[in-house]
Amino acid sequence: MKPIILIVDDDPIILSMMNKVLSTHYKVRVANSGYRALEVVMTEPKPELILLDVLMPDTSGFDVLAKLRDNNDTKEIPVIFVTGLKGENDEEKGIELGAVDYISKPISPIILLARVKNHLILKHAKDFLIDKNSFLESEIARRLEENQNIQDVSIRALAHLAETRDPETGEHILRTQKYVNILAKQLQTNSRFSDVLTDKYISIITKSAPLHDIGKVGISDAILLKHGKFTDEEFETMKLHAMHGVKAIESAEKDINKSVEFLDIAKEIAHWHHEHWDGNGYPDQISGDTIPLSARLMAIADVFDALISKRVYKEAMSYDVARDIIISERGKQFDPEITDAFITCYEQFVQTANEYRDVKP
């Protein structure tokens, strides 16, 4: 299909001449006024190039160009001014308004054809790049979403692998994931945490949270599913799940040549979410801000959910009793300010616990 050219000029002789020169190569539309040009340009299919006279009695070419550029449907159509004006200021004004070129009267057919051809080539190249970029952007977005979905499913699959060892934990990973997200968002306005708790970081720790107990796959059923209290020796074995978790994630990283942020944070959570603010936790007995923020957030999320959930070794506690236990551990097991955030958003924890309640067999 031939490209469509719109010629705008109030002089019928010039319209006829340009039409004759261009019509052998292009499909030509004509308009003898600025107002008519603004009507014709909206006819589908729209012209790919406009040759626009500057001096017309009803409205100037400058005014027509300004209106074309203000309209999203026409602002990308290249416009070449055709004029008998010789002033440099007039050319500058046209270029500032968005004209791509000037052709001076009297018009040379050879120059007219050359300028039209060149600007159509440029427009087609620009359109191709825009289409190509749009396609690439949509393809990148599609593949990122696909990879994200695969990544999320893989994380949940790994987390459920650990959970299948303990069938009574039910929706534990969903609840704790949500709790961590609630706490992190609550703390975003806290000056102590605001620099770290960006939207991106919160997204990553939320993604990583389900892997906090992946290390349980390394604990024997005799201990993991034991009814009743652990012996000291059994408890020491149980505590090894923190290091098992780190090693499991590190094994998954072996084929990756660079650091993956969500896996780095997943290792923090798996490794240190049983550490205590006062240094009496495990496996490394670190304390205070030495414990990564991700692990401190998970600590409250994990303990709250453990308290309100039935396990082979205990009955579920009420939400309020669990809340009071966590408050009693403020500054001991838990970061004081994260504990305060938990108190503030306690009702959201309750709502989440009810929403993802364990389904009884």
Characterise the protein shown here.
With 361 residues, the protein is an alpha/beta fold. The protein has 2 domains: 4-134, Rossmann fold; 164-355, Hypothetical protein af1432, CATH 1.10.3210.10. The chain contains 15 helices and 5 strands. It has helices at 12-22, 34-40, 61-70, 88-97, 109-163, 172-187, 199-208, 221-224, 232-239, 241-253, 261-272, 293-308, 319-328, 336-344, 346-355; strands spanning 4-8, 27-31, 49-53, 79-83, 101-104. Helix 2 (34-40) packs parallel to helix 3 and helix 12 (293-308) runs antiparallel to helix 13 (319-328). It is rod-shaped, with a radius of gyration of 35 Å.
Name its key features:
361 residues; alpha/beta; Rossmann fold; Hypothetical protein af1432; 5-stranded parallel sheet; 15 helices; 7% strand
Quantity of strands, as a count: 5
CATH superfamily heading of the largest domain: Hypothetical protein af1432
Counted by DSSP, the helix tally is 15
Oligomer: single chain
Largest sheet: 5 strands, parallel
In spatial order, strands of the major sheet run: 2-1-3-4-5
CATH class of the largest domain: Mainly Alpha
What's the domain count?
Answer: 2
Low-confidence segments: none
Give the end-to-end Cα distance, rounded to a whole number of Å: 68 Å
Q: Please provide the ordered H/E string of secondary-structure elements.
A: EHEHEHEHEHHHHHHHHHHH
CATH fold label of the largest domain:
Hypothetical protein af1432
Shape: rod-shaped
- Which percent range fits the helix content? 55-70%
Beta-strand residue fraction: 5-15%
